[in-house]
Amino acid sequence: MKNLKHITIALLILVSFASCKKNSRPNYEFMPNMYKSVGYEAYQESDAFANGVESQLPVDGTIPRGYTPFDIDNTNEGYELAKTSLVSKLDSLSIDTARGKELYDIYCGICHGTKGKGQGKLVKREKILGIPNYADRDITIGSIYHTIYYGKNSMGSYANQLNEEERWQVAEYVMALRADLKK
Q1: Which of 151, 143, 148 has the alpha carbon at shortest distance from 164?
Q2: First vs last Cα of the chain: how many Å apart?
Q3: Using alpha carbons only, what angle is made at residue 143 by residues 140 and 85, rounded to the nearest 5 degrees?
Q4: pTM assigned to the model
Q5: Hey, what domains does the chain have and what are their CATH numbers?
Q6: DSSP-assigned beta bridge partners for residue 152
Q7: pLDDT, tens digit (0-9, with 9 covering 90-100), for 27-85
Q8: CA-CA distances (angstroms) from residue 123 to 1, 37, 48, 130, 151?
Q9: CA 151 to CA 146: how far, in whole Å?
C-alpha cells in the first residue's frame, strides 16, 4: 500500500510536468548564463588589469611564437653584409626544390618570370620595368634572403607573406634558377 502511494505521487508529478510542455511556446530556461555568455567590451576600464585596460602591450623582450628576429639592418650596408656573411639555414636534406618553385611561382614569377630572366607577365605587359635577370646580377643566397625580407628598389618586402623557412626555400630556388641561366 505504501509503495502504491509513492508510485501514484510520482505518476501525478510526471503527468503534471508532461502536461506543462507545449511546442507552441519556449520551454523554461534554467541557468541562462550557461546558454548566453556575458559579453565584455574589449577596451573597457577594469580592475583586473594593472592599468585598468584589458588590451595590453607585450612584455619587453618577448617575441611571438614561431618568429625569429633578423638582425641585419635594412640599409645598403646591411645588404652587403647579408651578401657576404649570411648563409642558408637549410641543410641539404631540407631543401625542397618543388616547394621553392611553388612559392617562387606564386610570389616572384609574376615579375621575375618563371625562368628568372626578368620577363614575367607584368614586365611583358609593361606594367613594371627594370626587373633584373638573375644571370646578370652578382647575388648570393644571403642577398636574396635580405631582398625577400626587406625588399629592394621597387620590390616590396615579402616577410609577411613568407615565413623564415619559406624565404630560405625561395632563396635556394632562385640560386638554382641562376645556376641554370649561367649554363
Answers
A1: 148
A2: 105
A3: 75
A4: 0.67
A5: 76-182 (1.10.760.10)
A6: 155
A7: 666 666 666 766 666 666 666 666 666 667 788 888 888 777 888 999 999 999 999 99
A8: 98, 55, 56, 8, 18
A9: 7
